[in-house]
Amino acid sequence: MTSQELQDYLDELGLTQSEAARLLSVDVRTIRRWFEDPKQISGPAEQALRAWLRLQRLGLAWRPDGLPIGEDEPKELAKQIALYRQQAIQLVTLLQKVKSRNGPAAPWQVDLNAREARLGPMRVQFYPLPNGGFSPATYRRSDRAPDMILDGPLLEDAYACIAAEITKQKRK
To answer: At what angle do helices 152-171 and 84-100 cross, to 10 degrees?
Structure first.
């Protein structure tokens, strides 16, 4: 792995050097040394980064501090797929709810390529669907433990912003 590949991996994974150090159980100085001399990257650390990147590209949860949404068990995932129609109806209802409160309270930054929406310390990842829609995947916070109930309205705003960005992209 080269220094540039290491940087590209961290960028695509949305990790800072300090976050990568924490997740890899190394000191942040070790990460800095890896940038200076990539040959010092341990095999297990490189394999972990590669595995995380594969999962990221598949839109699957890989971070230990994220909460999976609907992917806890294969049966649950299959159930979610079978209930796609119901999910679509619920998404329309949610979008109407956000619209009725005059739109999102805060502007989430949506990156369709990374399949992620960001608002400060909050991150919501989503699965792109073949029909051009999306399905929420994971939610995490870098400032505290995630709390789906407390952050519910902000998560609804995230979904509305993701839907808006997908619609905007389709029109191009």
So the answer is: 100
Let me know: does 126 contact 119? Beta carbons within 8 Å: no
What pTM was estimated for this model as a whole?
Answer: 0.55
Among all chains, which residue has been given the structure tokens 């999976």?
68
pLDDT for 85-113, tens place per residue? Answer: 666 667 788 888 999 999 999 889 999 99
The 8-class DSSP code of residue 139 comes to E
Which DSSP category does 165 fall into?
Answer: H
Residue range 121-149, pLDDT digits in tens: 999 999 887 667 788 888 999 999 889 89
Cβ partners under 8 Å of residue 129, min gap 6: 84, 135
Per the structure block, which two tokens stand in for 112?
């369709």
Cβ atoms of residues 67 and 148 within 8 Å:
yes
Q: Nearest 10 degrees: CA dihedral of 15, 52, 143, 29?
A: -50
Could you state, in order of their start, the residue ranges of all structural domains in the chain?
3-58, 67-171
